[in-house]
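Exercise 7b. Backbone tokens:
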């Protein structure tokens, strides 16, 4: 490094010496450097560095545990979604899945049994309640009838007894009246009627004989005889009737007496029955007490049937517990199935394997839990879209916006800028080593023919202004004094440039837009070199090389001032 420093110092001193000696004589002490005014694209930008990142990066993990019997990919392998990545020995997970399936089958059977028991208990309970309600209604009706009967029976029995007693008394009175009054009276009337009819017959017979005798003598007419014959016939008929009545009277009287005797017997029997009916009052009272007891029993039976609903609730809780057990068993079975399926690890998406975490034969722990998220096998990056994550200084972030065009330069392909666009600006800043920056993500466009890889370095040039085909002058040429903006333009004598006012537009990275005052191709002063100052600088540098040092300022003892004369400034 020391040798290179000496060589560089020698080259600089030689160049300065050339300038000094070339400017001696009649040349001016100020030398001008010119640059042309060009028509080109004016660009204003700010830049930031970062690293290439893929669209997504996914760690492919295994939920199943066991020995990795096959690893089907390597770093750099391109995979499609669903391609095989690794195979893990499924022996343990298969056994766990079979056990979980058996537990699920048993749980489902218990749940089905609980449902059937619930349905049976529900039907029995509802039937019991309906039967108890029906029995209660029947008991209520019987009790009401018994109550009414118990209230009515004493009145009915007393009334029946009084009626039977009155009927019996009336029958006895009718019997006595028949025997003592009616029968003798009928006998007397019948005998009297018979005697009267006999007398009337005898009288009619005498009248008929006398009328006939008178007819034979001519004293009466035949009509008189006929009337007498008619009266005789009527009297004879009345006599026959009275005689027949007298002949049948005893039989009629005997029949009436017998009928009355039977009526007395019936009345006596009804009286005895009415007396016996008094016992129905006690029977009705007992029936009422029995109906009341049956009513209370029916109410108790209904309450018991309603209380049996608690058993239905118990059955419901058994169903819920059985279903919960089924859910747990199903979850366990599903988890075991996931573990079993996870023994075949496939790519979740298309991409490139950028990192391999293990090799075939590695034994990995099983499953995922609260404390473990599985074992990483490989890392797959989706490189169909590439981005640059760069840190933009907080002083420049106000110039960056989403959708802004970006030029990207990579270390792998220098001189080949790639188009890009700002996709995201992080909402929060980060501070590292006392530098505050904001992360900006830039998407790279049209990179398919380049082998870009995650982690590569890149520089993003954010285009703040881009104006094509404008007249651009070097920014060093512009001067501002006392509100005046001008440049120095090359004339026929390059040593004497002329000042010219200009009107400027936008400023870019390497120039400013010229609106008025200059033409394309004109040259303007971009630097003024003070030759006297250069000679003085050369002198000091030579003294430093000889040991005097630039800071000393004086010649070494015994030596002169190298480099010749020249006007001091």
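Sequence design result:
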């Amino acid at each position: 490094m020391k040798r290179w420093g000496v060589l560089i110092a020698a080259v600089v001193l030689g160049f300065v010496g050339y300038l000094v000696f070339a400017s001696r004589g009649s040349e001016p002490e100020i030398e001008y450097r010119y640059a042309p005014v060009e028509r080109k694209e004016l660009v204003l930008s700010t830049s930031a560095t970062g690293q290439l990142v893929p669209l997504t990066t996914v760690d492919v993990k295994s939920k199943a545990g066991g020995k990795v019997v096959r690893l089907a990919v390597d770093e750099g392998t391109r995979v499609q979604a669903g391609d095989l990545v690794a195979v893990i020995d499924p022996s343990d997970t298969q056994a766990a899945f079979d056990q979980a399936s058996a537990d699920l089958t048993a749980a489902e059977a218990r749940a089905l049994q609980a449902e059937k028991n619930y349905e049976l208990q529900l039907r029995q309970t509802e039937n019991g309640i309906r039967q108890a309600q029906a029995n209660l209604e029947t008991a209520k009706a019987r009790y009401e009838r018994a109550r009414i009967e118990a209230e009515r029976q004493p009145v009915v029995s007393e009334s029946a007894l009084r009626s039977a007693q009155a009927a019996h008394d009336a029958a006895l009175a009718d019997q006595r009246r028949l025997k003592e009054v009616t029968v003798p009276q009928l006998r007397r009337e019948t005998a009297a009627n018979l005697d009267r009819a006999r007398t009337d017959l005898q009288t009619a017979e005498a009248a008929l004989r006398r009328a006939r005798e008178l007819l034979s003598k001519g004293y009466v007419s035949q009509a008189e005889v006929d009337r007498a014959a008619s009266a005789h016939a009527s009297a004879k008929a009345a006599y026959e009737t009275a005689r027949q009545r007298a002949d049948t009277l005893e039989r009629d009287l005997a029949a009436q007496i017998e009928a009355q005797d039977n009526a007395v017997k019936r009345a006596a029997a009804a009286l005895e029955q009415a007396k016996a009916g008094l016992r129905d009052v006690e029977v009705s009272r007992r029936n009422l007490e029995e109906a009341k007891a049956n009513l209370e029993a029916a109410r108790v039976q209904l309450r018991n049937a309603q209380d049996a609903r608690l058993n239905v609730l118990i059955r419901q809780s058994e169903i819920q517990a059985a279903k919960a057990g089924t859910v747990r068993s199903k979850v366990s079975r599903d988890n075991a199935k996931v573990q079993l399926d996870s023994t075949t690890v496939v790519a979740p998406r298309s991409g490139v394997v950028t990192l391999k975490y293990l090799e075939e034969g590695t034994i990995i722990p099983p499953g995922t839990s609260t404390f473990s998220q599985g074992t990483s096998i490989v890392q797959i990056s989706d490189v169909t879209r590439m981005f640059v994550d760069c840190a933009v200084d907080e002083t420049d972030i106000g110039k960056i916006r989403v959708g802004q065009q970006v030029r990207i330069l990579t270390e792998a392909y220098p001189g080949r800028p790639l188009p890009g666009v700002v996709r995201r600006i992080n909402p929060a800043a980060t501070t590292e080593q006392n530098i505050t920056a904001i992360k900006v993500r830039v998407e790279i466009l049209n990179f398919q023919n380049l082998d870009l890889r995650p982690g590569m370095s890149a520089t993003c040039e954010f285009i703040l202004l881009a104006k094509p085909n404008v007249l651009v002058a070097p920014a060093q040429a512009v001067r501002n004094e006392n509100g005046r903006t001008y440049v120095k333009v090359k004339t026929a004598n390059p040593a004497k440039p002329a000042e010219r006012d200009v009107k400027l537009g936008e400023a870019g990275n390497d120039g400013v837009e010229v609106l008025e005052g200059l033409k394309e191709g004109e040259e303007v002063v971009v630097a003024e070199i003070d030759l006297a100052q250069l000679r003085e600088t050369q002198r000091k540098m030579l003294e430093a090389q000889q040991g005097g040092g630039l800071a000393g300022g004086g010649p070494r003892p015994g030596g002169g001032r190298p480099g010749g004369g020249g006007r001091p400034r």
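Instructor comment: The chain has six helices and 19 strands. Residues 1-7, 549-569 have pLDDT under 50 and may be disordered.
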